[in-house]
UniProtKB/TrEMBL annotation:
<dbReference type="Pfam" id="PF00171">
    <property type="entry name" value="Aldedh"/>
</dbReference>
<dbReference type="InterPro" id="IPR050740">
    <property type="entry name" value="Aldehyde_DH_Superfamily"/>
</dbReference>
<dbReference type="GO" id="GO:0016620">
    <property type="term" value="F:oxidoreductase activity, acting on the aldehyde or oxo group of donors, NAD or NADP as acceptor"/>
</dbReference>
<dbReference type="InterPro" id="IPR016162">
    <property type="entry name" value="Ald_DH_N"/>
</dbReference>
<feature type="domain" description="Aldehyde dehydrogenase">
    <location>
        <begin position="2"/>
        <end position="363"/>
    </location>
</feature>
<dbReference type="InterPro" id="IPR015590">
    <property type="entry name" value="Aldehyde_DH_dom"/>
</dbReference>
<dbReference type="InterPro" id="IPR016161">
    <property type="entry name" value="Ald_DH/histidinol_DH"/>
</dbReference>
<dbReference type="InterPro" id="IPR044151">
    <property type="entry name" value="ALDH_KGSADH"/>
</dbReference>
<keyword id="KW-0560">Oxidoreductase</keyword>
<protein>
    <submittedName>
        <fullName>Aldehyde dehydrogenase (NADP(+))</fullName>
    </submittedName>
</protein>
Amino acid sequence: MTDTTIDQVAAAASAAARAFARTSPRERGAALVAVADALDAAASDLIAIAMRETGLGEARLTGEVRRTSWQLRLFADTIVDGAYLDARIDRADPEYVIGPRPDLRRMLEPVGPVLNFAASNFPFAFSVAGGDTAAALAAGCPVVVKAHSGHPELSRATAAVVIDALRGAGMPDGVFQLIEGQQNGVALLKDERIRAGAFTGSTHVGRMLADIAAAREVPIPFYGELGSVNPAYATYVDEALLDGFVTSVSGSAGQLCTKPGFLFVPEDADLASVTGTAGAVAEHRLLNPGIGRAFAQRREDVIGASGVEVLSAGETRTDENGQTYATPTVVTVDVDALVAAGDALLEESFGPLSVIVRYSDLSTLPALHAGLFPGNLTSTVHARPAELEDGSLAELVEVLAETSGRVLFGGWPTGVSVTPAMQHGGPYPATTSDGTSVGTAAITRFLRGVSYQNAPQALLPEPLRDDNPWGVPQSISEAGRSTDWGAFAR
């Protein structure tokens, strides 16, 4: 792709922005449903390509296509009534207690063209038609997706489905486009016509892109989901808990951003069942040769770290095509050795590997967590019912909430639910900006507030007009109410 083509992509997205922003929520919602229907119709062909390019299984990919199409439908329902616009109207009030108030009307409007860097580990749900794309389109922003090099054929095929569906739904040309290549992605991120960026991937690449977005002459918001080790804390251990842990660590070969990288257990916990459970897991291909090489090296580094005891060594092998296959590696270490090892153990292991940490004093866990894990997508607590009710874990839970986007009680963090109350984001380094990339709140990343003061009705956006042609919810502050301020707080 040439610089001229990149310029054409940016120009097309920019040209589509105003017309797309003017589409009503119902029109845009119908377009999202059309994309969802088209993806479902093409699912069998797309899944076959994905299996070949990523090594992920048919069942996993089938579920991922379903998640992708239904999250598009969820966003359609989210925007169709217009509540997401947060339309507010303050009537003019000459008797306003802190000085005469003009007529003010505020709503959320699209930020403009969005550049979305697709992820490798979710070739549907976090890729071409995934959550970031769905949220930006729902907000009324044209989207340019930078395809991931790990599944280029799938990216092209998916993009063709999306473009055709949007065109059939009457959306403007240029509202969705696909580019390939790292240099092209960087060049477009620097283009002044791109107004926001989204990314899911490694800490190194995500931080590099975030710095580029911040260093522009006009900086733009960049929503990067980076690394996370997702610590879990258990006050007890039994075979069922350990089985669930191994399942979560080994699912999709551990190539999930919410995989529990650490499990803290009492120092006298019996971990014998881990060896058999992990050893029974069949090998799984990693996503691409680069990830395979990185995991093989990371596994060697962890096993070789001081103080590490191997519970299940696991294996890696590389085939004639350079693809790596792996089985789970689980090791154990005490708290002192973990702290002494530093990044040698604390760094994320992207793949089927996790560290079980033995602790001697439950009361030390809050400070330990705060010092070792400053930002994560998730943190998890496993405790007996009485411990959850007696307040003994309150300080730990407070620290987990301060350093995590989602705090779980029981269960495991893999298998993120796409739902309005989901928070899939967390303090840095989990994300560059503490928003969510999953769930309907993700739309807010691609909206900005605009107020109109004393504007004539004919020049107001439809959601702020008195006749409210889109029929959206309006929060109206009538004149004369300011003298009652504070009455409800007394």
